[in-house]
Amino acid sequence: MINDPKSAHFIAWTELGTSFVVSNVGEFSRSILGSHFKHNNFSSFVRQLNMYGFHKINRTPRAQRTSTDAQTWEFSHHKFLRGRPDLLDEIKRKALEPDPAMKHRVELPGEVAAQLGAMRDENRRMWEQLTNERRRVEKLVGVVNRLWDVVGKGFPGSGTFFLSLFLYHQILSSNYALSPTISK
Question: Which CATH class is domain 5-99?
Answer without folding.
Answer: mainly alpha
